[in-house]
Write a structure and sequence with these properties.
about 240 residues, globular, two-stranded antiparallel ribbon, Four Helix Bundle (Hemerythrin (Met), subunit A), about 70% helix, Arc Repressor Mutant, subunit A
Length: about 240
């Protein structure tokens, strides 16, 4: 494993919760693409680059395996999970149900402080001149706040487990930029339904948002794969 421009993951770690910090850095590197799909993850090399023992790295890798961000390929050992159309389909079908339920519960358990946070995140997303990073952070905040407003710890945990996958999708250039002009009004409708304490509409709008995101992503990726296939065959 080469120590080439892997973001901040190879800086020395010196924090109270070493295991959590190692996990956070590795997870973020995968989500951001600094550790690429299919890249071999060698426990000893990671520990050496991060200036830690192998134990926190091993624990972090176990967590990432549980989240589906790291898998065993049966030959080389642990690798960063590849993004397949089948995995995207599975994840978004689950996310559609969970996000819809979270929005329904958020409308029922509405809290003024969380509603303000939701509105602030939406304003950033609606600001045409925000940076890509600002948009992504506001987008994550919006969905995380709805989950928190659901007041269901099991649902919050389930959505948190999917967050890395969601962020990983948004970070791909195939996905986000062409969807922004459609995505922002979708988030506005979700917010308005929660604000009006209408759980049925909130659930429907949240599910519609995830469904259209999934369809757009799959169509885009299938087109991308088709272009490569035609090029390889000289078409």
């Amino acid at each position: 494993m080469q120590n080439n421009d892997k973001g901040g993951i190879f800086e020395a770690v010196s924090v109270t919760s070493l295991g959590e910090e190692v996990y956070r850095r590795l997870r973020q590197a995968i989500v951001d693409g600094d550790l690429a799909p299919g890249e071999h993850l060698v426990e000893t090399a990671l520990a050496r680059h991060m200036h830690v023992s192998r134990t926190p790295v091993r624990d972090a890798l176990h967590q990432l395996v549980a989240e589906g961000l790291v898998v065993s390929d049966g030959v080389r050992g642990l690798v960063v999970a590849r993004i397949s159309l089948e995995n995207i389909e599975h994840a978004y079908v689950l996310r559609e149900s969970l996000e819809g339920l979270a929005a329904r519960l958020a409308a029922q358990h509405q809290r003024p402080d969380l509603l303000r946070r939701l509105q602030d995140a939406l304003r950033v997303m609606e600001h045409g001149r925000c940076t890509a990073q600002e948009f992504d952070e506001a987008h994550s905040c919006f969905h995380d706040t709805i989950a928190e407003m659901s007041d269901n710890p099991y649902l919050i945990k389930a959505l948190a487990d999917l967050q890395g996958f969601r962020t990983r999708m948004v970070s791909l250039d195939w996905v986000a930029k062409s969807r922004v002009h459609v995505s922002v009004p979708e988030h506005r409708r979700i917010f308005e339904a929660i604000e009006m304490r209408n759980p049925t509409i909130a659930e429907e709008e949240a599910q519609r948002h995830v469904r259209t995101t999934r369809e757009g992503l799959l169509n885009r990726l299938q087109g991308h794969a088709g272009t490569h296939s035609r090029a390889e065959n000289g078409l």
